[in-house]
Amino acid sequence: MAYPSYPFPPGTLLYPPASAVLQYLNDYATHFDLRKHIRVKTTVQNIDWDASLFQWRVRTTPTSSASEAFAKESFYDLVVVANGHYRIPFYPLTPGLRAWLESGKAVHAAWYRHAEYHGDTVLVVGRGPSGVDVADEMREVCKTLVHSFPEATREDREDGTLKLRGRIAEFLDPHEGRVRFEDGTEETGIDYSILATGYEHSLPFLPPHLLELALPPPIPPIPEKLYNSKFHIFPLAKQIFPLVTSFPLSRLAFLALPYRIIPFIFAEIQTRAALRAFTDPSSLDPAREAVDIVSRYEELRAQFGDNELAIARAWHKMEAEQFPYLDTLLQFVAGEHGNPAWKLPDWVLEIWHRKDTLRAQWKEL
């Protein structure tokens, strides 16, 4: 889990608590003397490419005041966007959900901190890492947990205290706690629902002429501008660099957009790839990168057909794909920014495939 350049201290738990991770990040900043480069309590209001200066024009304000009177404009050769994508909750457009949210019967997992009693029967929606964690923890404080996710086969486990259900078709009367699933069955008496339904990409500091908030058109050809579908940023060479015509390929980098990854390792290797491209722009071949983007699109289209939204949602999903991706990225980095020792050993991939078993055994310990 740690950055390749700075391991966790000996004795760190296999699944460290948030406090340990926070301490690790503080220690990382101290070790590399990073604080002098960090400007806190500052909001980036706008980032735009100035073609006449061949630089990025960046406008910031103090977080406490967005007033233009306090705005500051700076110029940079390279911009790295690493603002994360777990801040703006995504709410599915499931009929009836709004009434549950407004009545206080449902909340997004973004506001979940720890298991609390919210009634005997709790519904958890989603089975990403957050959904799994929330479901596991909430089972300790409720009598019946209903876990809904698209891949689920209807099943009752452990004397009916755990109910696996498929995708929800409609949230019905919140006072009755009733929902209907896509298979036509219903559950009633649900006291509370936690939505582990993911997040949206939000980049409000990039103006519309650089980043359009919309689904990109089908490819080929690859569009000349950058799109934010809320589920993916497109088109990006190596899932990092915007392959567009309005500014050079190596001057803007997006880090850690993919999900279902090992984030610290992933982010550091991508950062070094960004440095390689910035110091040697010729290392990026736009034609080759365009072929790779089209190839990925065709692979996803074979899975999802003409469903552009489904393709967008899957575009940054990695899972086991992250390991060959990182190997390829390390080969690209090479030189002064690389380190052959950072190649992930084969056992990491094996553990990734068995992570649910590992987690269950860790909980028993």
From TrEMBL:
One of its GO terms (molecular function) is flavin adenine dinucleotide binding. It comes from the Eukaryota. Keywords: FAD, Flavoprotein, NADP, Oxidoreductase. SUPFAM superfamilies: FAD/NAD(P)-binding domain. Belongs to the FMO family. This is FAD/NAD(P)-binding domain-containing protein. It comes from Phanerochaete carnosa (strain HHB-10118-sp).
